[in-house]
Every structure is written in C-alpha cells, then in structure tokens.
Amino acid sequence: MTKTELRKTYKALRNDLSENDIDDFSLAISNQLLKLPIWEYSFYHIFLAIAEQKEVNTDYILNILAGKDKNILISKSDFKTGGMTHFLLTDNTVIKKNKYNIPEPVDGIEITNNKIEVVFIPLLAFDKQGNRVGYGKGFYDRFLADCNPETIKIGLSFFEAETEITDVFDGDIGLDYCVTPKGVYRFM
C-alpha cells in the first residue's frame, strides 16, 4: 500500500480504539520495550501523545525512563521551518498544547541532536522492512537525519507490520525496532 492509503486506513483503525484499548495496548508496548537492549544509554527522546489522535500513551515509558534515572528529552515543533527543538524534561518543565494539540515544553534546557542516543517515534503504520508512515509533514525524517548514525530509532505501534510500503523514498529514515503490544520487530 502507499503512504496515503496507509494513513487513511490506520487513522480509521486508531479512531475505532476505545480509551481502554489505548491504555491496555500502551502498557503492553511499554512492557515489550523492557526486552530491548537499550537501557544502558543516557539520553532518550520521547514524544508526548496527542490524545485527540489516539496515539500511544507514552506515560508508561516516561515512568520507566524516570525510574531508571535517564535524561528524558521532549520536543517543540516549528511548523514554519519543519524543525524540532529538544528540551530536557525536568520537574520544572511547563507543558502546553500547541494549536495542533501536540503537548510541548514552553521552554527549558535545550539539548542538541548529537547527544540523543535513543528515539521513540510516533507512527501510523510500518512495514516488515522497518519503513514507517507518519502524518506526512517530515518532522521526524528531518530530525533523525540530523542525529548520529548510531542513534537507535524505535517506532511504537498499536498494530502489526504491513508487508510493504510501496512509495518509500531516499529521504525516509527507517526504524531499528518497532514495538507493538504483541512483540518487537528488529530491523538492524
């Protein structure tokens, strides 16, 4: 399927999920993450879920990271440039939703891309080759292209892999892992 077809299909599938489904699946995903060999790093970038889009609730993962005393980074999107600025999440970080309902830090301690070691990535769909489909604005592709090549890229999905995304292009950044409620896909 094409990215456009997959966006339409998976937005509809997510829309059909209940709050209980989202909560149960998000908890299962966080438990699956514990199986990955990623916990020796220091700087972890994570997205804050857009509840209105029925994204994976990352609160469970945030709790794991905090419990392991990791540096947690969250982003603020610039819709004029298509870029993202990353801030250290602290007890003093003020979070506000932007006009797209994306929870973002108001300001804080900025961290450069080259320090980021692990990135948890929102997506709508992914395939068995590690390609992903997001909302189509390219924020994560630009961000990931500017990270170190060794940065570990982990997609989080409520659903299992598609066989193939047919319109992948060179600027698309693939995943190293994708985690679903049922298991872990490895693409490295």
From TrEMBL:
Reaction(s) catalysed by this chain's protein: (6S)-5-formyl-5,6,7,8-tetrahydrofolate + ATP = (6R)-5,10-methenyltetrahydrofolate + ADP + phosphate
Record's keyword terms, sorted: ATP-binding, Ligase, Magnesium, Metal-binding, Nucleotide-binding
SUPFAM superfamilies xref list: NagB/RpiA/CoA transferase-like
Names of the cofactor(s): Mg(2+)
Positions annotated to bind substrate: 50, 55
Residues binding ATP, per UniProt: 3-7, 132-140
Keyword Metal-binding found: yes
EC number, as in UniProt: 6.3.3.2
Gene3D superfamilies xref list: NagB/RpiA/CoA transferase-like
Coiled-coil intervals, chain numbering: none
Gene Ontology terms, MF aspect: 5-formyltetrahydrofolate cyclo-ligase activity; ATP binding; metal ion binding
Keyword Nucleotide-binding tagged: yes
Entry's Gene Ontology BP terms: folic acid-containing compound biosynthetic process; tetrahydrofolate interconversion
Extent of the signal sequence: none
Family stated for the protein in its record: Belongs to the 5-formyltetrahydrofolate cyclo-ligase family.
Protein name stated in the entry: 5-formyltetrahydrofolate cyclo-ligase
Organism: Algibacter amylolyticus
Biological classification of the source: Bacteria, Pseudomonadati, Bacteroidota, Flavobacteriia, Flavobacteriales
